[in-house]
Write a structure and sequence with these properties.
heterodimer; A: alpha/beta; Nucleotidyltransferase, domain 5; 5-stranded mixed beta sheet; 23% strand; B: alpha/beta; Rossmann fold; 4-stranded parallel beta sheet
């Protein structure tokens, strides 16, 4: 019998996460890849890579459910045929609660956005997301590590070695950078600057997102930046309690949405929409055009699969996106289900 | 005569009154088109830098109408006060002056009068008489028209109180009685929108929060649907009232909804750079913390990308779903991601 797995894909701004989970919700294979401009190719590459690993381990596999999340969730959802397209806040929270059931506060910092999620009794009660400013996210750290001339992987140990962290303005990336240069010229060691940067990042994060809201333990810290032991330490100092970094810290969003997709299929009892691994061989193109129907000039995105348009979005009035929905909706979905079961 | 009415700011409160007045005098009313990118660009390029987006948008609507050379006047009333001892924000009270200085060459085509509302009909009739003199209508006809205007406003208020949004009032302006009788569809979830009517109802500037919610099966109510009597007692919580009627409506109306058991959550909508909004948002935060009902703030600005907004609204809906015990999955209607305005064709 082939191994039954659920697939979760989290397309972030900087990295894409692909996981396969088994019947017990455990991750059988998880990949963390840089998105590098073309999310569709990244997803396909990730799926092939993960498929090869699992099939060599378990032989045949059967995908029973697929979920997508992250800022590219819609694109990924149409390309692979998702059963559930879920926002990243719910997906991250779901995985964190699964891992640490009595969690109260989740810190999540990714490549370009950061969020804080408040949980009480296993349910999200409040959340906040950074809006326009990317100060203090992964991209910023990457950039600064490069500027100081150390690898981002070493960032954590440098921070831990610091004896006197210098104070750095964390409000804004531009100011933080000029502040760091200034402190360097004054003679501060790279260790102290990096530790100072970690502290300012955490301070900025808590000021911008937590905004005086009650921070209760247990704390869970996830997302790419949670790899960084220096930032974890800075969080622990700021909240005065242990901050848990879960075992799949970088894959939480994809893991969460894979579990949600599995529940979805269990509840509805339907077959998955997954198009199969053959999607990696299909040709996908995207196209952006400005609609000239009215003065809004919406940027409309079109996804084309083997020469056929499968999705539109971005139009405010629905002129384009409704073209497909009117045909699709539930009837066509139902028809397709019958087709599959007849086969 | 042909009179242009900008579809912004107090249009979303007093349009019925203006419609009733001008149309019963036999003047032709022309509304500016709903806010779009062109209007925002017009507004931003003709306004001073440090005002809120809502007033900038208003500039755009006025400019749009002034560009229509066949219009005799563009109506820019000065709403000075909406309740005794309560005054409007300085930018709104100075609106006709702002417009005249922004569009100097067309200053004499701006029709204005100073309104004091909710303080007896006399003050309103006075304001309409000021307009009537400029339009050259007889005093007797103006008085009659003013009363028609007030009647329209009362009908619109009735429609709002029965749960219809102001957008519906605009649509049904010729037939408000029919709207009042129309039943409001009850949905499984209800979210209250707290904020100034011009922020809540300007669907372009706020990323169409109302449709985003309604498309996901969430019904909405707004703070302008409430009779101020029902939330009067929240002054005690605030220690003292705010100085602006609309800010009080947003703050106290929001608190009223926080206390209402049939409301699942509150979303406040305000415009970037609005000082007064920051006060009522904080009040809602503090109150919701005591009662334990979810509150989310949406602050709108000139940017039109709404990916972040869609994510937040989706997550907010998830939050109220879970609170109701409905779980995160099997959102039948959302299976195809309509929350985000994305539609998928199965292949």
């Amino acid at each position: 019998m082939s191994k039954r797995v659920a697939l979760g894909i989290d397309i972030g701004s900087v990295t894409t996460k692909v996981v396969f989970i088994d019947e017990n919700d455990e991750i059988v294979e998880g990949l963390y890849i840089r998105t590098k401009g073309n999310p569709i190719d990244t997803i396909k590459a990730g799926m092939i890579e993960a498929y090869n690993v699992i099939s060599s381990k378990y032989g045949d596999i059967e995908v029973i459910a697929v979920g997508t999340t992250g800022s590219g969730r819609q694109l990924a959802g149409v390309v692979v045929g998702a059963d559930i397209i879920k926002n990243e806040i719910s997906a991250h929270a779901y995985a964190a609660i699964h891992e640490v059931p009595d969690v109260s506060t989740i810190f999540e910092i990714g490549g370009q956005d950061s969020k804080i999620i408040f949980i009480r009794n296993g349910a999200v009660t409040d959340f906040a997301m950074n809006t326009v400013c990317a100060a203090g996210t992964g991209s910023f750290l990457d950039h600064q590590a490069e500027r100081i001339g150390i690898g981002i992987e070493q960032f954590g140990e440098y921070a831990l070695r610091a004896t006197n962290p210098v104070r750095i303005a964390g409000r804004c990336t531009v100011f933080a950078e000029s502040d760091m240069i200034h402190k360097q010229q004054m003679g501060a060691t790279p260790e102290d600057i990096i530790a100072g940067l970690a502290e300012s990042l955490v301070r900025n994060y808590l000021n911008n997102l937590a905004r005086g809201k009650e921070l209760l333990p247990k704390f869970v810290f996830q997302g790419g930046v949670s790899e960084n032991i220096g930032i974890v330490k800075a969080f622990e100092n700021a909240v005065g309690a242990e901050v848990i970094v879960p075992k799949n810290n970088k894959l939480m969003g994809a893991w969460g949405v894979a579990m949600l997709a599995k529940r979805e299929i269990e509840i509805t009892g339907q077959r998955t929409n997954f198009k199969g691994f053959k999607v990696t061989e299909l040709e996908h193109k995207t196209r952006v055009f400005y609609c000239d129907g009215c003065a809004n000039n919406c940027e409309v995105y079109e996804v084309i699969e083997n020469g056929e348009t499968i999705a539109y979005w971005g139009d405010r009035c629905g002129k384009w996106s409704n073209r497909l929905t009117s045909k699709v909706r539930r009837t066509e979905r139902a028809d397709r289900r019958e087709e599959i079961s007849e086969k | 005569m042909k009179i242009g009415i900008p579809r912004a700011l107090y249009f979303y409160v007093y349009y019925p009154m203006w419609y009733g007045f001008f149309s019963s005098l036999g003047h032709e009313i022309r509304l500016s088109i709903p806010t779009n990118k062109e209007i925002i660009n017009l507004g931003v390029s003709h306004s001073v830098d440090d005002i809120c987006i809502s007033v900038k948008v208003f500039h755009g609507h006025v400019k749009y109408l002034l560009n229509k050379k066949d219009l005799d006047f563009v109506f820019v009333p000065r709403i000075a006060s909406e309740e005794k001892y309560k005054y409007t924000c300085p930018k709104l009270a100075a609106l006709p002056d702002l417009m005249k200085s922004a569009f100097v060459n067309d200053a004499d085509r701006i029709l204005t009068a100073t309104f004091y509302t909710r303080q007896g009909d006399k003050l309103i009739i006075d304001a309409f008489e000021e307009i009537g003199r400029k339009l050259g209508d007889t005093e007797e006809r103006v008085k009659k028209a003013a009363k028609v205007g007030i009647k329209y406003q009362d009908l619109a208020t009735k429609a709002l109180r029965s749960g219809h949004t102001f957008l519906e009032v605009v649509k049904y302006i010729k037939n408000l009685e029919e709207l009042i009788k129309k039943p409001v569809e009850k949905k499984r979830y209800t979210v209250a929108l707290a904020g100034f009517p011009y922020d809540v109802y300007d669907t372009f500037t706020n990323g169409d929060v109302i449709s985003k919610l309604e498309d996901s099966g969430v019904g909405i109510v707004t703070t302008d649907m409430l009779d101020p009597k029902v939330y009067r007692h929240y002054s005690k919580y605030m220690i003292k009232d705010l100085f602006w009627y609309q800010a009080n409506a947003a703050a106290k109306g929001g608190m009223y909804y926080i206390d209402s058991s049939d409301i699942d959550g509150i979303i406040s909508i305000s415009s970037f750079n609005c000082g007064i909004s920051s006060i009522y948002q904080k009040l809602l935060d503090l109150y919701s913390k005591e009662i334990g009902k979810p509150v989310m703030h949406i602050i709108v600005d000139e940017q039109t990308g709404d990916a972040g907004l869609a994510t937040r609204i989706e997550a907010f809906i998830d939050l109220i779903r879970v609170k109701r015990g409905d779980g995160l999955v099997s959102q039948e209607n959302n299976l195809h991601g309509t929350e985000d305005g994305v539609h998928v064709r199965s292949v």
